[in-house]
Design a protein that fits this description.
Layout: H1 6-24, H2 28-34, H3 41-56, H4 65-73
Length: about 70
């Protein structure tokens, strides 16, 4: 089950806005205003993955982060 707390909702929305703004070649602030508050599950998954990688990377050696990301995705 994906965590859809307020923090993860905001991070997921920002990931979505960043991706779409890059693809369309527009400013992220403009796209953020147009991005709905509720985004798809992919963005919540990426938010959870980013949070987990950030927590794990505090003490991790960087060459092991690829293995961690692969494990989390599977």
């Amino acid at each position: 089950m994906l965590d859809k707390s307020k923090v993860n909702r905001e991070l997921a929305r920002r990931f979505c806005a960043a991706f779409v703004s890059y693809q369309l070649g527009i400013g992220i602030a403009t796209q953020y205003k147009k991005t709905p508050e509720e985004v798809g599950d992919l963005w919540y998954f990426l938010a959870a993955l980013a949070g987990e990688l950030a927590r794990e990377s505090q003490d991790a050696v960087y060459d092991k982060l690829t293995a961690l990301a692969t494990t989390l995705i599977q």
